[in-house]
Amino acid sequence: MSDDNQYLEIFPTWLRSLGDDAEAFAALLTEPNLGRNAKEAVAGGINYLFKSLDLIPDGIDDIGYLDDAFVLRVAAEQASGEDLEGVDTQKLQILARLTNEAEQVRDFLGDDYGRLDGYVKGLRKGAARGRSVNDILDDEQTGSDLLSDVRGFAKTYESPGFAREEKNLVKLKAFFEFKLPG
Predict the structure, then answer these.
(1) Are β-strands 131-132 and 127-128 bridged in parallel, bridged antiparallel, or unpaired?
(2) Nearest-angstrom CA–CA distance, 74 and 102
(3) Residues near 84 by Cβ (< 8 Å), separated by ≥ 6?
(4) Which residues, 6 or more positions from 90, have their beta carbon under 8 angstroms from its beta carbon?
(5) What is the CA radius of gyration of the chain?
(6) Does this model's pTM top 0.85?
(7) CA 18, CA 46: separation in Å to the nearest integer?
(8) pLDDT value at position 59?
(9) pLDDT tens sequence across 56-99
(10) How far is residue 11's CA from residue 114's CA, in Å, rounded to a whole number?
(11) What does the alpha-carbon distance between residue 5 and residue 95 come to, in Å, rounded to a whole number?
(12) Domain with 90 in it
């Protein structure tokens, strides 16, 4: 772990912006020029918000939603590795910002970042609330329902407090270390 103070400043901002970030990131699913692989990465990352068993339970004080924030950033990085020609400029800006912030996730997790990257890739094959990524992308109603759920999440999401204490970083890193597969 490098300079812990930077994470104690960055992570609370990610918690505060999670609802807005999710809504803006989900809007990429409506982008006609975004390729299938990129949309799969986006759909998997967004669908993670609604998993009942995620890496860090949402109710855990201070860090419960940080896994969601991390997953969105890793999914953005995966999506940005695809052909983005013709994609709406505003949508590209949110993708670029989240992708750039994935570097901080990489720095924070160190060797565990590769495991998180693999986990996020695996979300493309998973489901949440009975919705698989293929259902989201191939069935108009399922995709619309997901976007509606994301808007509802963004509207009702209340950022948890985040005490700027090193113990929260230790706890956060421990969850990833022990809960990530392989």
Answers:
(1) antiparallel
(2) 6
(3) 33, 34, 38, 92, 95
(4) none
(5) 15
(6) yes
(7) 11
(8) 86
(9) 999 888 899 999 999 999 999 999 988 889 999 999 999 999 99
(10) 20
(11) 26
(12) 4-179
